[in-house]
Amino acid sequence: MVRESFKKDNLMANKNLSLLTKIIKTSVTNELNKIKITDIQPDIGSIQNNTYSINKTAYLKDINIYKGVYYSRYFEWYGEAREAFFTKCIIFDFMDDFDYAIATKHASCNYHGEISPFDTLTITVNTSNIKRASSELIFKIFNSQNELVADGSQTVLLLDENGKIVKAPKFIQDRMKLFYTDKQTIIIKPFEIIEKSK
After folding, report:
1. How far is the first Cα of the chain from the last one, in angstroms, to the nearest whole number?
2. pTM for the predicted model, two decimal places
3. CA 85, CA 80: separation in Å to the nearest integer?
4. Which of 67, 165, 179, 188 is the most buried (most CB within 10 A)?
5. Cα separation of 127 and 176, whole Å?
6. How confident is the model over 104-124, as pLDDT tens digits?
7. Helix/strand/coil (H, E, C) string of the chain?
């Protein structure tokens, strides 16, 4: 008798907790949906003209004996920029309350110039091709002379705890749209946008 009563109380407590969690998440999501780009004030990196950017220094460990950057470093830098972008601009409580994993479906990099040791680089992040379950991140790396030295992209997906691809919550899609760039637009220097001639 006591066991059944305990089971019923425990079941009821779990239902109440589940309901309370849904109410809180709905309330938080409604508030998150109201955020504008001017509300986002990252402590790492900066936002200008709907473009997020971080600075990075190229060290000797990044350069090979031919004075070129190891190709894998570009992908590492894109990864660092992506983490900073998601943490500071899209999902503020990324490590604490985020119920999804971010997976890379596709990544690419185009090389346009050399990077010198100890050069200060600017890595910009924009979004493109925003869909229900995936988005494309557009990266550009500029050297200290504001010359484009590399650009690339990543297609990212959200996965649930079982590794299944899921639709991104509305607040994530809305925030990703704040950093949208048309692929017909090329950025020659940070924050100077020039339209491609057709």
Report:
1. 79
2. 0.70
3. 8
4. 179
5. 6
6. 999 999 999 888 889 999 999
7. CHHHHHHHHHHHHHHHHHHHHHHHHHHHHHHHCCCCHHHCCCCCCEEECCEEEEEEECCHHHECCCCCECHHHHHHHHHHHHHHHHHHHHCCCHHHHCCCEEEEEEEEEEECCCCCCCCEEEEEEEEECCCCCEEEEEEEEECCCCCEEEEEEEEEEEECCCCCEECCCHHHHHHHHHCECCCCEEEEECCEEEECCC
